[in-house]
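User: Structure tokens for this complex, please. No commentary.
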Amino acid sequence: MEKRVVFRSAWLPYALVAPQIAITIVFFFWPAVQAVWYSFQLQDAFGLKSQFVGLQNFANLFRDGNYVDSFKVTALFSVLVAFFGIAISLMLATMADRVLRGAMAYKTLLIWPYAVAPAIAGVLWAFLFAPSIGIVTYVLKGWGVDWNWILKGDQAMVLIVVASVWKQISYNFLFFLAGLQSVPRSLIEAAAIDGASPLRRFWTIVFPLLSPTTFFLLVVNIVYAFFDTFGVIDATTQGGPGQSTQILVYKVYHDGVKAADLGSSSAQSVILMFIVIALTVVQFRFVERKVQY
Amino acid sequence: MVENRPWLTAFSHGVLILGVLAVAFPLYVTFIASTLTLEQIMQVPMQLTPGDQFVENYSQVLTAGSTKGSKAAASSMLFNSLVMALVIPLGKMAISVISAFAIVYFRFPLRMFFFWMIFVTLMLPVEVRIIPTFKVIADLGLLNTYAGLTVPLIASATATFLFRQFFMTIPDELAEAARVDGASPMRFFWDVLLPLSKTTMAALFVIQFIYGWNQYLWPLLITTDESMYTTVIGIKRMIVGSDSANEWNLIMATAILAMLPPALVVMLMQKWFVKGLVETEK
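Assistant:
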């Protein structure tokens, strides 16, 4: 789409885009190019000398059991976050769409976790689940569950999934609610007259019509689990115990900042960049075509 | 509602109330913990009714900070967070609205090239270029400065796209009339385009305020000086060890202070918030 009426000036448009382009080059392109450059370099232990090693860093990564494990952890984590985040918020949105009384109040009370920083969400849940003083831990103990996420990897995973889903529900909820409100009433009414039960109407009419929203949220939630949950993890498990909650982004940070292994960390950054590019392409193809049954 | 099913309606309310409680429970416990003494929190199970330490805990974090880990006072951290939460949205809007104006209302060589350059930034989140971006900031001498905290985050493709999309919906007749009347491009921008963009800006501001306030990885990397900590970083730095080593009453009071401003913005500006959220994702 183009504008028919345009202004003419030899210099003005360049001056107008200059600030944004300058910041983009200095803080986006230049670092990204450097990340690619470092990923082909091997540095000595003191960071004084480096030599070009081609794809060596990448080959090392895929031979490294820790990195492959980190991939698996990330896959499990993002599937859990996306599945529970979407399922719970779809349930809540469907109910909120049904009730007439108090719909606005429910909405207001459900959306505020969006305002909570991921790191704070992590701290709140870590406190509830704290091995010796947590309230949830106390209740679990009453049920005979021995809860200690500091020592047990699968429980640490549960903790970060709960905190991440809790924070993301409000976002998903708003999009589902908007999607539900655009489902034509006449379709639902026709099905009701034909005697279809509410559950049947949901699965045969509403859910298929919501498929674009669901697909969009699936991509957004995976991106969220990949990147934005860094704060949740850093404030709670820090990738531990062992490597059981070390997602890819956390490993880039850990290897680059704490272990100061520039080559490996940069190679991991480059791989992540490809993942982001793939996810963005998927998202935009979808926006253009609007998946619909 | 299509048909009257009292049981189903009751069930719906039940599910929603359960959802609201699950969402609110961590906040409630946090608030309670922020009004107790540390000894009271350490008693298992912790009491679930407010204690009497509200004034003591909050005045301690606001003026002095905790005694373990980070010793930054919450008042200075809140100020740093506020700087990020205001400078990022305002800077973002300023540079995005002019670049969108140039891309929509001018024809010039390299126009599409610039457009794609901005677009590609979507694919380069901070998380994937941690180390090199840190080096750039260090080389520019911007560690532990407000400029370092904010400037790298104000370039954004989403805001530019949002303005571009909005400008596309403005009738061509307006620009035509302005040209016929002999108005310069900048005159048209100030007197026609900006006033029309008010609602878009309000929506964008709410979203970006929360984005700026809640930044984590970026301030974590480039602030080492306690006086530059943002609230979210400060909370993380107050956690020094396992359960009993932390001053949970102070951590929780700081957490409440950190959540309050963005939560208020979301609840009070709900209309703009929802609009901004839905439109920035288009």
